[in-house]
Amino acid sequence: MMTTVKLVEQELWQREEKGLIGILPVRDAAEMTSVGSMLSQGVGSDSGERSSKIQVGTSDAHRHEGKNQQEVFQWHKTGVAARALNLSRGVEKPSGRVTYTVVLEGLCRFNVEELNTRGIYCTAKVSPLEMTKAEMEQVEQDPDFITLSRQFNTTATELISVFEQKHKTSGRIRVLLDTVPPHKLADIFVASFEMSFEEQLSMLDSVDLKVRLSKAIEIVDRHLQSIRVAEKITQKVEGRLSKSQKEYLLRQQMRAIKEELGDNDDDEDDLVALERKMQGARMPSNIWKHAQKEFRRLKKMQPQQPGYNSSRAYLELLADLPWQKASEEQELDIKAAKDCLDSDHYGLIKVKQRIIEYLAVRKLKPDARGPVLCFVGPPGVGKTSLASSIAAALGRKFMRISLGGVKDEADIRGHRRTYIGSMPGRLIDGLKKVGVCNPVMLLDEIDKTGSDVRGDPASALLEVLDPEQNKTFNDHYLNVPFDLSKVVFVATANRAQPIPPPLLDRMEVIELPGYTPEEKLNIAMRHLIPRVLDQHGLSPEFLQIPEDSVKLIIQRYTREAGVRNLERNLAALARAAAVRVAEQELTVPLNQGVEKLASQLLANRLAEGAEMEMEVIPIGVNNPEISNTFRIASPLIVDEGMLEKILGPPRFDDREAADRVATPGVSVGLVWTTFGGEVQFVEATAMVGKGELRLTGQLGDVIKESAQIALTWVRARAADFKLAAAEDLNLLEGRDIHIHFPAGAVPKDGPSAGVTLVTALVSLLGRKSVRADTAMTGEMTLRGLVLPVGGVKDKILAAHRYGIKRVILPERNLKDLVEVPTAVLSSMEIILAKRVEDVLEQAFEGGCPWRQHSKL
Ligand code: ADP
Predict the structure, then answer these.
(1) Cα(3)–Cα(24) distance, integer angstroms
(2) 3-state secondary structure of 27
């Protein structure tokens, strides 16, 4: 409640003898909120006067200065006379405003008879509303009043006891009940509750004691009820909590009872099962201790508790890991191993020889720390299947971990258990699945790991492959060392070059370059077709794929280094055949009893009064489907027409090179990709411009520089090659040159396109097409020397696949030709070039026509 500052200053602050002041509730007429106000002098319950002069002030004199206060405030007619018990003054604000805090004691109600608002504070004429002693005595005799008083007392006592219970106090409030008369008590009680302003006013207006008491009873009772409801809710919540605690206790007791009874019904109790599994895991002793500690911790936890599940999953992993469990090592039979490799793989003589050597060393010295074998080659050349043959030869389980695209060290080593959703790394996870500690583990695509901010997987792999370190391989999730030394590691990669050198150092690279069409044909006839037939539940009785058809698939439908697409196409044929056979099988019984069945069906139909319609027709012997059933004994033989029907129109033909180089400005190069060697066309064109060179086709810096070198070289030799009329003439005068490497979406880089670029430019500027049967590769220097390149074997195989007959190679690559299968070499012409001029001489039909003018 706020009071009029002026009134406080004049009537209370400076006076020794403080008089009474009056307090009136006011409403702010605009906002309808309550504001306290004050009046002073001459009111008292014992004054005896029925009317006296009063001073009134509003609390916010500053705010309402200059305004007509009557307009702003609406004064309530009933108020309370009060005595100041305590007075304090706040620090004066810069605006000159002072705040007072006044503690008042209300003495009695009064009624305003006349209000004077014109002074510095308001004064009023009032009449007290309190009863005289005689009147009071009279009321106290009233039976209604007595009942109400009692009722009020009961409610108040109840409230007090609830309050005392809650706050654990006693006695002090209860004293009030005995000493203060009920109607005053009603005022005191009600004043301490939170109520709306309207309710407060109505309490103030209740001069009649009976009315006042009954109102107070209502308010106190309401308060009591709300306390009770709140209490009930709390109890309910507490009740629920204790229920789960109770359950936990009961479970603990049940467990104890079961243990006591030696009850073997363990399946229900997964913790017991887990413990048993842990005991059977044969962990090393230090790890067993660690696991025991974790298990004790788990037992103390409730299943709902956070961390319970993660702790359990961790212990399950510890229990599942093959700490000692190993496939039994048989005495290695080298001859059997050789047979196994031979029966699974055609060709690959050197590779198989190397594998046998590797196995022989292992046999003589089982714990020999030989290098890790790494098969390097394009997809589908048998890297994975060789690794699984090694496992078979050793009599061990085989597992494969794909490392393609692994950039996060945690993929290898796991996340620490503090992470949410943490998991062990792929190695530990794989070992858990394979269930033995000595499998053959294939690290697939080891060249495709990369490093970024999340660590370097290669360094983790280094630890895995290092015999010194892998005895105590540390997975972050597992957090205890695991011995990987019994695992036989084999790796595969498409290229050796991206493998980080320290990792490559631990491995022995065995290259698988890809197959010639003849080799593919043999692989298909001996291995792929029998396997594909078997996979589809077919046999040669149903489907035969003759050699000629396989050759057509190799030539027209696949153009790859390996045999993966070949296998896929064969599978497509098998699927188509399977559908036919399955259809026929259905019709066979019909065929056998076709007449009987048909007549029966007909009879049924007629009996139902239905028309004879389509269902009956397929049974007719003229129908082609049915006539097929007679051919069930004769197999389906795949011919060219069937190939087109099942595999679609041919995807490749030998005319592609010829078509593409038909216009000048296109040359045929050989490049090296992760899919093995590839034929790469280079296109050049010229247009009106300012002598600029444009390059497209997702090129790296090295290849861009090659293009610059090639252009420079051609410009320097322009006159020699009669590309420009005179030596001092600028070849690019008034024109731009654009060079494009098609398959624009595939990124390309490397220096080996140098000679191809020169050939394309000379072809363009000399307006002469290159030979379609000739492909080339070679880096060039600015002065026109041809330098050797890598991947020669793969490139020659790619050219061979394309049906290209002549390949131009750098002279210094001669040594690489020994690796190329002789069948391929004998069907091709290999031309060795020392200088770019040699290349040009061979690239054009009838030699380079401008050569004789060369001054070189
Ligand atoms: P990679 O791991 O090199 O990508 P895969 O080992 O998966 O290739 O080989 C693809 C398919 O080709 C396999 O079914 C495999 O058996 C078969 N294959 C590859 N090379 C040969 C071969 N020389 N003899 C028999 N089958 C082969």
Answers:
(1) 10
(2) strand
Whether 739 contacts 757, CB under 8 Å: yes
528 C-alpha to ligand 1 centroid (Å)? 9
- In our burial notation (b when 16+ CB lie closer than 10 A, e otherwise), range 396-435 reads bbbbbbebeebbbbbbbbbbebeeeebbbbbbbbbbbebe
The answer to whether the CB of 346 is under 6 A from ligand 1 is: yes
382 lines ligand 1 (CB under 6 A): yes
514, two tokens? 């890809």
Element (H, E) at 128: strand 123-128
What residues of the chain score a pLDDT lower than 70?
Answer: 1-4, 14-18, 28-73, 168-172, 238-242, 244, 262-269, 368, 451-454, 584-633, 724-729, 744, 849-856
> Between helices 383-394 and 334-344, what is the axis angle to 10°?
150
Rounded CA-CA distance 167/188 in Å is 20
- The protein residue with its alpha carbon nearest to ligand 1, atom 6, reads 382
β-pairing, 55-58 vs 37-40, is: antiparallel
Distant-in-sequence, close-in-space partners of 212: CB < 8 Å, separation ≥ 6 = 183, 186, 187, 203, 206
Q: Which two tokens stand for residue 821?
A: 């299968």
Residue 381 in marked binding region: yes
Structure tokens at 757: 């670029």
φ/ψ of residue 128, rounded to 5: -65, 150
Q: What pLDDT is stored for residue 856 in this prediction? A: 44
Per-residue confidence (pLDDT) for residue 122, from 0 to 100? 79
- Catalytic residue IDs: 752, 795
Calpha distance 617→598 (Å, rounded): 9
pLDDT at 585: 59
pLDDT at position 541, please?
Answer: 83
| Cα-to-centroid distance, 383 and ligand 1 (Å) | 7
Q: 377: annotated binding-site residue?
A: yes
Residue 351 labelled as part of a binding site: no
3-state secondary structure at position 314:
helix
Pairing of strands 473-474, 481-482: antiparallel
Q: Hey, what are 445's tokens?
A: 């695509």
Q: Which residues of 321-333 are buried (b: 16+ CB within 10 A; e: fewer)?
A: bbbeeebeeeebe
Rounded CA separation 712/721 (Å): 14
Q: Please list, in sequence order, all residues whose beta carbon lies within 8 angstroms of the beta carbon of residue 239, skipping any fewer than 6 positions away.
A: none
Token couple for 212:
């006042």
Residue 392 DSSP label: H
Under a CB-based contact definition with an 8 Å cutoff, are residues 315 and 294 in contact?
Answer: yes
User: Radius of gyration (Cα) for the chain, nearest Å?
Assistant: 51
pTM over 0.90: no
Q: Is 22 in the pocket of ligand 1 (CB under 6 A)?
A: no
Length of the chain: 856
Residue nearest to atom 9 of ligand 1 (CA): 382
pLDDT confidence of residue 265? 52
CB of 383 sitting under 6 A from ligand 1? yes
